[in-house]
Amino acid sequence: MSLEQFGDRWSLLIIRDMMVRGYQTFKQFQESGEGISSNILSDRLRTLEAAGIVMPEPDENDARRVNYRLTQKGIDLAPVMLELLIWGAKYEATAAPCALIAQMENSREQVIAETQRRWRQRDLTPLIPRFDEVPQDIPTRSSERRNK
Amino acid sequence: MSLEQFGDRWSLLIIRDMMVRGYQTFKQFQESGEGISSNILSDRLRTLEAAGIVMPEPDENDARRVNYRLTQKGIDLAPVMLELLIWGAKYEATAAPCALIAQMENSREQVIAETQRRWRQRDLTPLIPRFDEVPQDIPTRSSERRNK
DNA sequence: AGTATTCACTTGCTGTTTGCAAGTAACTCT
DNA sequence: AGAGTTACTTGCAAACAGCAAGTGAATACT
Question: In sequence order, which residues have a C-beta less than 8 Å from that of residue B14 and are 6 or more positions away?
Answer without folding.
Answer: B29, B41, B44, B45, B48, B54
